[in-house]
Amino acid sequence: MRALLGGALVLMLLSGCAPSVDPIERLGKKAAQKVRPSHGPHEERYRNWGLAAPVTRAPRPVRSPGHGAGPAGPGLPPALDHVPTHDKVVFLTYGADAEQDPRFIDMVRELRLPVSVFLADSSVGPGYARAARLRAAGASIENLTLHHAELRGLSYRAQRAEICGQQERLRVRLGGLHPRLLRPPYGTYDRTTFEAAADCGITSLILWRRTPGRGPDAYERDAPLHPGDILRPHVQPHEEESRPPASLTTETARLLRRIQESGFTVGRLEDYL
Where is the signal peptide, in residue numbers (predicted)? Predict the structure, then answer.
């Protein structure tokens, strides 16, 4: 009986009835490399956004111990429109329009863009749902005051209510978030702003690189980039009034192409402060 079973087993092996071999193993190492995908899921998505190459990671920042000293006085946060660095890196910062463009969240997630989004409670969508999606996609969420009010000229009490009120709202709505950065609405502030911001736990007031001789919301699309520039891309109307403005996603893609062509990359602002 054992002899019969042994003979049957030999016949099965010779006739190909043995357990099948993994086809990748059978193809061999060289052929297997052709079968397996050669790119990760994110590596080709940059092409969908009109980029010629992936957005490269910024170098590890080297913090300067003294760069946080601000003109407002000791113990008060500085106001920054750029970050002192020799790295060829710029920083992308946004306002409420980042939450209102439905494709922007996808762009941040797929390109792994290290952006900072400043939000005011008065302009945030219902229940902070989109803000939460932005944060989950990788964006840093920061403070733009409670009612997007111009702070300059307000009393200490009023400014503190605007800044601390939004700190609390972001903490409650976004799972214990504690923003460190404040963008004063319209880029205006006074000494009282520094004092109120410091009392609310803010470590820096964030402005943006402006174009000389133009309004505070304007920025020159083709201006040369400098290491450490804080940029504020946003929707701008076409010169032809009959044409609708480009979307924030389109404007960001155009800026990313210029950043790459200039040999720069995008850094996370919070990492450099």
Answer: 1-20
**CA–CA separation, 212 and 210 (whole Å):** 6
Cα separation, 31 vs 40, in Å, equals 19
Query: Mean pLDDT over all residues of the chain?
Result: 81
- For residue 152 the two structure tokens come to 């300059």
pLDDT in tens, 63-92: 655 444 456 677 899 999 999 999 999 999
Torsion of CA 254, 255, 260, 261, to 10 degrees: 70
Residue 145's pLDDT band (boundaries 50, 70, 90)? very high
Taking CA atoms, 154 is separated from 157, 169, 217, 229, 233, in Å, by: 8, 21, 21, 29, 28
- Per-residue model confidence as pLDDT tens digits over 205-260: 999 987 544 455 555 566 789 999 999 987 765 454 555 667 899 999 999 999 99
Rounded to whole angstroms, how far apart are CA atoms 244 and 269? 31
Tokens for 117? 């989004």
Residue 157 class from Cβ within 10 Å (0-12 exposed, 13-18 middle, 19+ buried)? exposed
Residue 180 · residue 157 · CB < 8 Å: no
CA atoms of 246 and 234, how far apart (whole Å):
9
Instruction: Give, in order, the Cα–Cα distances in Å from 16 to each of 6, 7, 168.
Output: 16, 15, 70
Alpha helices in 64-178 (DSSP H): 97-100, 102-111, 129-137, 156-173
Which H or E element spans position 103?
helix 102-111
Task: Locate 29 and state its tokens.
Answer: 């190492």
